[in-house]
């Protein structure tokens, strides 16, 4: 008898589709390499330079390889954490704010100059008609989850996901998304691969606990804000809690 599971539409899959479309050109890919390199350096500095013994580093390296990041780039990013490039002492910091229509926006950054990053982020929120918020004002609306993007059918992946210890399964735009507790991310991914599931990516990611509906106009304004934030060198990722209206989603994925 097949195991039962209940897919939960988190909105994350739609965001993943948008980001994949945006990251298709060479300029975006180069920027992604820079951000992943920082992620690798930070992970190696915190947990050591051996991916086999450092799950966070292993995920970051896999993310780089998924983007076809050259092995030399990955090696240099790890070496930087070991002391080659002491001038690049990145710290992780989050910014919380509100976009047009009261959308909650969480910005994760890795920076070697906190003042510069704060100024750039604040300026973009202000220009969008939004505003930065105090610490804790927005973060409670998001949760840290392990997110695994897979190929295959919802039924087949869902069955393997439950067996592997996942929490939820979602489907969108030709991919199936498996959600798990961050601490179980590696265990679930390994279980999926053992079951023959094609795993495209796996990462610990902030996901909105619930989403809000906004007008098409406000959706476009928020997407413009997110795009501008993600173009900042210091910003690693941006998460928001609004649903992208179908007509706006269609505009972005043509």
Structure overview:
There is one protein chain. The chain has 3 domains: 16-81, Arc Repressor Mutant, subunit A, CATH 1.10.10; 91-140 and 211-252, YebC, transcriptional regulation domain (Alpha-Beta Plaits), CATH 3.30.70; 141-208, YebC, transcriptional regulation domain (Alpha-Beta Plaits, 2-Layer Sandwich). It is 45% helix and 24% strand. It has helices at residues 12-22, 26-47, 55-66, 71-81, 114-128, 154-164, 185-194, 216-231, 246-252, and strands spanning 91-99, 103-111, 131-133, 142-150, 168-172, 175-180, 199-208, 212-213, 235-240, 242-243. A 4-stranded antiparallel β-sheet has the order 3-1-2-9. The chain has a 4-stranded antiparallel β-sheet with strand order 5-6-4-7, sandwiched between helices. β1 (91-99) and β2 (103-111) form a beta hairpin. The radius of gyration is 18 Å and the shape is globular. The N and C termini lie far apart (40 Å). Mean pLDDT is 84; it is low at 1-10.
Top-tier CATH class of the largest domain: Alpha Beta
What is the approximate shape?
globular
Sheet with the most strands, sense and barrel status:
4 strands, antiparallel
Number of strands: 10
What is the quaternary state of this protein?
Answer: single chain
Helical fraction equals: 40-55%
Number of domains: 3
Give me the CATH fold name of the largest domain: Alpha-Beta Plaits
User: What's the alpha carbon Rg, rounded to whole Å?
Assistant: 18 Å
Unreliable segments (pLDDT under 50, ≥5 consecutive)? Answer: 1-10
Number of helices: 9
Q: In what order do the strands lie side by side in the largest sheet?
A: 3-1-2-9
Roughly what is the average pLDDT, rounded to an integer?
Answer: 84
Write out the CATH superfamily name of the largest domain: YebC, transcriptional regulation domain
How far from one another are the termini?
40 Å
Judged by helices, strands and strand pairing, the structural class is alpha+beta
So, CATH architecture of the largest domain? Answer: 2-Layer Sandwich
- The secondary-structure element order is HHHHEEHEEHEEHEEHEEH
Per DSSP, what share of the residues sits in E-state strands of 2 or more residues?
15-25%
